[in-house]
Design goal:
- The chain is of the alpha+beta class.
- It has eleven helices and eight strands.
- The strands form two sheets. The chain has a four-stranded mixed beta sheet. Strands 2-3-7-6 form a four-stranded antiparallel beta sheet, with no helix packed on it.
- Strand 2 and strand 3 form a beta hairpin.
- Helix 1 packs across helix 3, helix 4 packs across helix 6 and helix 9 runs antiparallel to helix 11.
- The N terminus is likely disordered.
Amino acid sequence: MTMTIEQTADQLSAADADAFRAKCRAFLDANHRAAGQVDFEWNQEFLARSAAEGLAGITYPAEFGGAGLTSAHDKIWREEKAAYAPQDSEFIISHGMCLPMMAEYGTEEQKRTFLADMIAGRTLWCQMFSEPGAGSDVASLQSKAELDGDEWILNGQKVWTTLAHKSDYGLVVVRTDPEQVKHRGISMFILDMKAPGVEIRPIHQIDGGNHFNEVFFTDVRIPKGWLVGEMNAGWRLATSMLMYERVAIGSAGAGSVSQPQFDQLVRLAKANGAIENPVVRDQLMRLYCMESTKSMVAMRTRAEMKAGKTPGPGGSLGKLMGSNISWFYRGVALEIAGPSSVAWDAETSGASHLSKYVLNSFQNGIAGGTDEIQRNIIGERVLGLPREPSVDTSVPFRELKVGTQRS
């Protein structure tokens, strides 16, 4: 399908919007799979097909592999995608965090080298922040990089790295100057996940999966030109990336107002008769209201974002709300499905799939920053409340006893 698009920076005429929406619907009708059939390989295939049709990287410049369209186009694309099961969810970090970071902070050479493959799903990226001694307090990280001629030598360890075992590249934050205070002297680098000295150890989960990993670095060499942004400005970049992460998590599928978890539980409640219980109906309507509100907050967050600019702290609202929904959803799901939500046999109908959601609901209050961290951000940076006291803001990192550093 071909079309002519007449547009201003972020506006489309009604005719052009309708034409683009028709293109999106036609593509999705012909290129989607049911949720149970969406695997990693299909994620890659879907993105490759999207890129070929000019429907990947909607707002990114065409010279870097994007579609070169506007945020109005992106909104339509998200609205139409929301009607289908997620087709590219394995790329939420690669596209929701790493891609916008590279587009905003990468050099021209870095963008020309990496962006097109990122957008089309030919490469998968991960992010490496957390360490055994640096979780919510990421600034306590101890992994370090030292310059050796035209290369950086990286040593250390990261943990809870999502999809590291499938990733081609990653963005890693490490310490480059321990003489500075802990929030300084940190830099961000591009890392080839297949480089010599990179060891990836899967973390086996209770649900049988291995989504997360430990990553060890032993004298890993990184090209000098793979520094992202300014030297020793990694904390600012890490903060920006976390903002993108919270928007990606908190506004996933934010094309329209939707209630996917409500819809799921209503189907189950109708199937097993629980829908006749007035308490269950009250709980379901509360879930409906929570998901509706989250959708509207997420849509506002997306609307406020300008292409190529880091989102603000308001992204923490959607992230925190999503976590609260997960906690509430878990309780309602357990009440409706009973023991079959966590244990079932071949004869159990309609409940076995809930185990995945029930188990994964616990991680939603941790990934992307704990609920406590989100409340601090909202209090300090959205509501303007006083910051919590800190005693180590002027002490060189080398002198701090933080994380696993004790000497």
